[in-house]
Amino acid sequence: MHSSTRRQWLMGASLQTAGLGALLWPGAAQALPARPLAFPRDHGSHPELRTEWWYITGHVQAQGQPWGFQLTFFRSRVDATQGLQSAFAAKQLLFAHVAITDVKGQRLRHDQRIARAGFGVAQASEADTRIRLQDWTLERSDVPGSTPGEAPRSRYTTRITGSELGLELQFDSTQPVLLQGQQGLSRKGPEATQASYYYSQPQLAVSGHLTVAGRRMAVEPGTGRAWMDHEWSEALMHPEAQGWDWIGMNLADGSALTAFRLRRADGSALWAGGSWRAPGQAVQVFGAQAVVFAPLRTWTSPHSGARYPVQWRVLTPVGQFEVRALLDNQELDSSGSSGAIYWEGLSDLLDGSGQPVGRGYLEMTGYAKPLRL
């Protein structure tokens, strides 16, 4: 099948998932049960649920310059094909996005892929994080703890080769898994069905190499920090939700800040949440009314016409913060895979007095067109 025709066929199946899932998959409207997350099993894939992603963002220094990067592997269950017996039926789709932000050059490079699961081309293990999409990979393994009796830590390894960029990176956990929401069950709307299983691994140490425009660069030791999210759900978004605004920030003192809101078409908040964890402390979970996103400056994309707030004031139970994009144009057009146009970019975190306290990623969806999950 011609590649463009194949992509259209795959995306057609994916769009059917979004529109027909509630009708074609028994129990699609049921709330997810609260349950303890079990590792390493829950590092792996959950094909019984509709949507899942593994997401790593971070920043490093290489050749004396700052760089940001993000990679996301998605899995989508295609409800319309679940009853088919053919081995060729696209029952699960895997797609991936990767991007590198050149802060000094003020340029974003990105790439994407999509394939149906199976035939050795694309697969996501249920036993642990082992994902392959052609020659793009993300894998997790245990490494011994640094002290006797300490639980094993996680090491993620990714290898990505794109047309203008490449990642050969290793991410080592320095802190325990952070369970978002109520012990890993995170509400995303006013109804119980709008929820996901969700955990993070902030403050990952980064090593390896970046490749940009054919130039392979070693990550300078001790300069990199990354954030990993793994989230899976059956019905994530309320019908009124247009999209979301989200931040995952590693602070210089070792703390981790998550904040998000689901947004209506008029820009008002439908739901919100997040968490805070200081080094060695318990997670503080934010209630739906406790997080406020207030835009301070916007940028209009010349590509999509979408208007994105690239500077925010974020109010949380642990204080007021400001989020500032390091590059305005960090919009990604994933029409060749997931179909979404969204903004995902490296940003600084400032405290209430305007002092830089951390760095991480800001994600904004639903500004170019409504997002449906």
Considering the chains and any ligands shown, give keywords for the structure.
single chain, about 375 residues, mainly beta, AttH-like fold, 14-stranded antiparallel β-sheet, ten-stranded antiparallel β-sheet, 1 helix, about 5% helix, globular, disordered N terminus
Overview of this protein structure:
- With 373 residues, this protein is mainly beta.
- The chain is built from one helix and 24 strands.
- Strands 1, 2, 3, 4, 5, 6, 7, 8, 9, 10, 11, 12, 13 and 14 form a 14-stranded antiparallel β-sheet that branches. Strands 15, 16, 17, 18, 19, 20, 21, 22, 23 and 24 form a ten-stranded antiparallel β-sheet that branches.
- A hairpin with a 4-residue loop joins strand 3 (92-102) and strand 4.
- The protein starts with a helix and ends in a 9-residue tail after the last strand.
Q: In brief, what are we looking at here?
A:
The chain has about 375 residues and is mainly β. The chain has one helix at about 5-25, and strands spanning about 50-60, 65-75, 90-100, 105-115, 120-125, 130-135, 135-145, 155-160, 165-170, 180, 185, 195-210, 215-220, 225-235, 245-250, 255-265, 270-275, 285, 290-300, 305-315, 320-325, 330-335, 340-350, 355-365.
